[in-house]
Amino acid sequence: MGFLDIKNATKSYGELEVLHKVDIEVEEGEFLVLVGPSGCGKSTLLNMIAGLEEITSGEIAIKGTTMNGVHPSKRNIAMVFQSYALYPNMSVGQNITFGLEMHDVPKPEREKAMNNVAKLLQIEQLLDRKPGQLSGGQRQRVAMGRALVRDPDVFLFDEPLSNLDAKLRVDMRTEIKKLHQKLGATIVYVTHDQIEAMTLSTRIAVMNGGYVQQLGTPKEIYNTPNNLFVATFMGSPSMNLVPVKIVKLDKGIAAETSNAHGQTVSLPFSSPSDELKSYVGKTVILGIRPEAFTDPGGADRDASNIVEIDNEVIVTEPAGSDTFVMTTLGGKECNARMRADVQVKPGSQARFAINMDKAVVFDTDTEMRIP
Amino acid sequence: MAIASSDTAIRTGRVTRFFLYLVLILFALFYLLPFGVMLVNSVKPLAEITGGNMLSLPDVWTLEPWFKAWSSAQIGVEATGLSPYFWNSIKMVVPAVAISTILGALNGYVLTKWRFKYDTLIFGMMLFACFIPFQIVLIPMARILGLTGLAGSTPGLVLVHVVFGLGFTTLYFKNYYQVFPTELIRAAQIDGAGFFRIFQRILLPSSGPIIVVSVIWQFTNIWNDFLFGASFADLDSQPMTVALNNLVQSSHGVKEYNVHFAGAVFAALPTLLVYIVAGRYFVRGLMAGSVKG
Predict the structure, then answer these.
(1) Which CATH architecture best describes the domain B83-290?
(2) What is the pTM for the complete model shown?
(3) What DSSP letter does each residue of B12-41 carry, written as one string?
(4) Taking a contact as any Cβ pair under 8 Å apart, which residues of chain B between 165 and 224 contact chain A?
(5) pLDDT tens-digit profile of B164-189?
(6) What is the ipTM for the molecules in this complex?
């Protein structure tokens, strides 16, 4: 039993079921990120944990106590909203202590708690201001202060960074991570930004269409995605997906496809499983992350199985730290992530190195990963 | 940037500006004319009105008509002046405005933030109050006032005006609260505030402009109402408008136009004051939420 238990939680509006039997156990001190495209049910799930939306069936429990039907204020949770939801008519200080006031905490204690939180978040000089006089980043801090002051069992974050500009978002992301490490708090965090999910979380639940597609550590999600959806959703630029034919070699098996000129390219697998071997002769989808698809000099030296191929360069996109090179494999456009100073020109030939240790394979029909 | 911004603005040269102001001033004068006539004639002796030009300034200035209209003019059968009826109106308007505004605010709060099944249907039915002609409900209303024992009393009039005002105040507050972020309500719920505390601590402090709109609207309508006052009030609860009518329509004696004008000014004064004091919030409140929430 976890600290926060979501057991078979289902949500429907009338006939329409929007969340299907979600099962997640969150341990104390964990940072769980719910990530997915809009409309996937992640915010609904968060609202159900908060008690803002009812659970149609199933159970949500915190510290072993069921929370079904318990009022939001009695769940000992705190929530940070996307729009911050600061009370516009109250000062920052009043905003932070409003929850304590509603729980009949005496004034001296409230002030003490407020000062502690203000110090932690470095917003002491803002306490007398109104939310309207604050910048986006400051509002964000106040919203977090309002959550922190309650000393809740579980923190809920609903896309808290999506209203900030790009630079501030990265800074606040680090702040939240620091805060989590410092306080060891249990956090459930909703975002549609897969980079936020990867950087912040101890575990990720990738959601789509009301189902949890995969639940795992960021590494598991990134390296061994359960299905095509998770593979394409996580990672930027997203994973290259190439239709290939599995063929038998003298030793082991290989994925066979064609390059931009229609020449056959054979990519032998490092250590294929028996299940993958059973696909010989069939067409599957090969997934290669852009960073596993690079120039020979930039290839991972620890990799056991680097396959080099010649192919045509379609477009190059220098990004400063890397250069993204577009080519085609099996008729599909593929992104290769090369070193920044690599000398390749659009329209010319270049040599690519594919790290087959990192390759994953998906069934064409079920779209599930073949282990 | 400076060039671009002056290009998009309407060019106003000296000549255009002159004509613009000329037209505006003419319109303002036109609208002010009736009130001006009322004021001018209320400070003239009667002889000057009956013997001369209504528009000319008085030769002899006198406040006598004002005193007479207030305290000694013949209203119906008694020579009490308008003052008791003025207080009748105040006693009716203040509670009616207060109650209908508070209930309207609560309705708006419930209809936007505590949605329930068929709430739009209920709101639609409430809107009937805005469109239904008053004459239709006179008889049923009289029956209800009779049954509740409120007929012919100030509380009875308050009830009538609250019922009729509720449609408008609910509409105002619903529209205003519609754009009020629901996340704030949710945050307050998580903070542990209940239904009334959220209303009182979060919503009401942000409702200034719409409260002003509702108060002005209700005050003007209820103060100026004649039909309900004439239909449902007794002699000791008759509002100002009915008394003014009785003053002006009295069929015996000399028609004291100067007193009538003074009485009309008294009847118009409270609404005028409300507009002057709170008028600039009125437009602001009506526009609230239309551009940016």
Answers:
(1) Orthogonal Bundle (1.10)
(2) 0.77
(3) --HHHHHHHHHHHHHHHHHHHHHHHHHHHH
(4) 181, 183-184, 186-193, 197, 201-202, 205-206
(5) 889 899 998 998 888 888 888 888 88
(6) 0.76
